[in-house]
Model the fold of this input.
Amino acid sequence: MTVNSDLAGGGDNFSVLLQGRERRTSTMDVDALEQYLAKHPALSAGSLNRIERLE
Done:
């Protein structure tokens, strides 16, 4: 199971997760996102023309 560090630490009353065996930590989610974006530089949100300027 994969959860964020807050839940893994029993946050939001998920105290049962503290009883898990073979707990492992890995890359922080923000670091994983940074690594992904570095490998995929062509990603772009693009213009969706959702903003209309009223004058």
